[in-house]
Design goal:
Layout: H1 21-30, E1 45-46, H2 58-64, H3 75-88, E2 92-96, H4 99-110, E3 116-119, H5 124-132, E4 136-139, H6 160-170, E5 178-181, H7 194-207, E6 211-214, H8 218-228, H9 237-245, E7 250-254, E8 265-269, H10 272-285, H11 296-308, H12 312-330, E9 346-350, H13 351-354, H14 364-376, E10 378-379, E11 381-383, H15 385-388, E12 404-408, H16 416-433, E13 440-444, E14 455-458
Parallel strand pairs: 1-10, 3-4, 5-6, 6-7
Antiparallel strand pairs: 2-8, 7-8, 9-12, 11-12, 13-14
Helix pairs in contact: 1-14, 2-11, 3-11, 4-5, 4-10, 6-7, 8-9, 12-16, 14-16
Length: 460
């Protein structure tokens, strides 16, 4: 593990506390064994998400003080619009309050009943909004992306032959659009290569199909291209981003990730006619088109975050910190089974390998999340069988290729000592509980994206 050059220093700190074991047990039982239902003050190290949980910079704070809260045509919107256009080379910008709002508006506008949206491991809110519009998601991620042990530099890639076959088999008219998620969160934070992205663009052009990108972690994907893909080591992050978005029809983005903003999202498109169609639902659901449900100070924060996230020194430390954490876990006594190679924003523990004797339908990843809190006050999140939900046509439980406990790293928040503690707790859980033979079952199964609000109980 090499020494990291930190491109920042702490200026303000926030106290955290570790509750006693008995208190943690009471809290998690009261929460129905669901980490979402815990109060944040009861958590010692919070690795639930990197969405809006990063530390803002002094430049962001300064820009926020300049926020123009005018209802229409504010200076803050014009600054944001210019920054977004310069980042993605796409002309039409609609701010929204967060990423799922952009997903709702886009999918309710362009997805028809029964239409398909092929892509690479659609994230939970994306999938839910497509299905809410009565569409269907089709996961065409390459086979390597369905394994935690295969080492492939771009496990988020779409299987090109499968995509071509699907288009021919189902017909262009049955497909609303193609979606590329960069990086691919549900598959372990895995990136997409430029070669694969360009090939998908060609397929879309050949069949006149729209291509949209889920751009929540676009800069992290660009960093992986710079580091892993031949021919890009001398390219700047900005140039790689421009090439990534060249020729795409638009993007949705949760700006709480790679814009390092506490709140905000983006819906950005190339076509003026589509932009006109999207304006009405933005006004109905979010607010006027030049503020989209977020304040002027948040638009300033978002614009500044888009500048900072493209800095190589920031990305090198950000992704390096995640890599170091992964190596730390692999070197823990007994070794913690994680998705390899390590992705850009989180470590994903393979819970089926962590608890090899627990049946797959007894939520081993959710159980690992519960044990992390019980034994260490650490909050992670399940990305597996509970999150996958049910087949919208048959009602059958979906069984994803991987059942993962995601330990997500907030930007510029935690340091080496925090991760050493997490590694120690995981090692203790593996030693004490790794031979468990039973897991969890639903106590109350919530509808929709069920991992947010379902409750569980232990199977005796």
């Amino acid at each position: 593990m090499k020494s990291r050059v930190l491109p920042f220093k702490a200026k303000v700190v926030e106290p955290i506390r570790l509750l006693g074991r008995q208190e943690r047990q009471e809290r998690i039982e009261k929460a129905g064994l669901n980490l979402f239902r815990l109060d944040a003050e009861d958590v010692y190290i919070d690795l639930l998400t990197d969405s809006g949980t990063g530390a803002i910079s002094v430049a962001q704070l300064g820009r926020m003080m300049e926020g123009d809260e005018s209802y229409a045509g504010s200076r803050s919107f014009r600054r944001l619009e210019k920054e977004v256009q310069g980042t993605f080379n796409l002309p039409y910008v609609l701010p929204v309050h967060q990423g799922r709002a952009a997903e709702r508006i886009l999918n309710s506008t362009i997805v028809g009943p029964g239409q398909y949206v092929p892509g690479n491991s659609h994230f939970d809110t994306t999938k839910a909004h497509i299905e809410y519009a009565r569409g269907r998601c089709v996961d065409l991620t390459i086979e390597e992306g369905r394994s935690s042990t295969i080492n492939h530099p771009f496990k988020g890639n779409i299987d090109l032959e499968q995509l071509k076959h699907f288009i021919v088999e189902h017909g262009v008219e049955s497909i609303a659009y193609i979606l590329m998620t960069i990086t691919c969160n549900s598959g372990g934070g895995q990136p997409v290569s430029m070669e694969n992205l360009d090939a998908v663009k060609e397929i879309c052009r050949a069949h006149q199909l729209p291509l949209f990108i889920d751009a929540a972690r676009f800069a992290e994907n660009a960093y992986f291209i710079n580091q892993r893909e031949p021919g890009f080591s001398d390219s700047s992050i900005t140039d790689i981003i421009h090439q990534m978005f060249d020729g795409v029809d638009g993007l949705t983005m949760s700006s709480k990730k790679d814009a390092i903003s506490p709140m905000g999202g983006l819906l950005v498109v190339r076509d003026q006619e589509l932009f006109t169609k999207l304006r009405t639902p933005v006004i109905l659901f979010e607010g006027y088109v030049t503020y989209g449900g977020i304040s002027g100070l948040m638009m300033e924060s978002l614009a500044q975050g888009l500048r900072e996230v493209k800095e190589f020194s920031y990305l090198d430390y950000r992704i390096g910190q995640v890599t170091d954490f992964g190596e730390m876990l692999q070197q823990t006594a007994g070794g913690i089974p994680i998705v390899e190679p390590v992705g850009g924003h989180a470590i994903f523990v393979d819970a089926r390998r962590f608890f090899p004797k627990v049946p797959e339908d007894q939520f081993p990843a959710q159980m690992l999340c519960v044990e992390l809190y019980r034994q260490g006050g650490i909050r992670g999140v399940e990305v597996g069988a509970c999150l996958a939900g049910r087949n919208p046509d048959t009602g059958e439980n979906l069984r994803p290729p991987l059942d993962l406990c995601r330990l997500t790293i907030p930007r510029r928040v935690y340091f080496k000592e925090h991760f050493e503690y997490v590694a120690e707790v995981l090692g203790q859980i593996k030693e004490r509980c790794g031979e468990r033979t039973t897991g969890l079952k639903f106590k109350v199964e919530a509808p929709g994206i069920r991992h947010f609000d379902s409750t569980f109980e232990y199977i005796s």
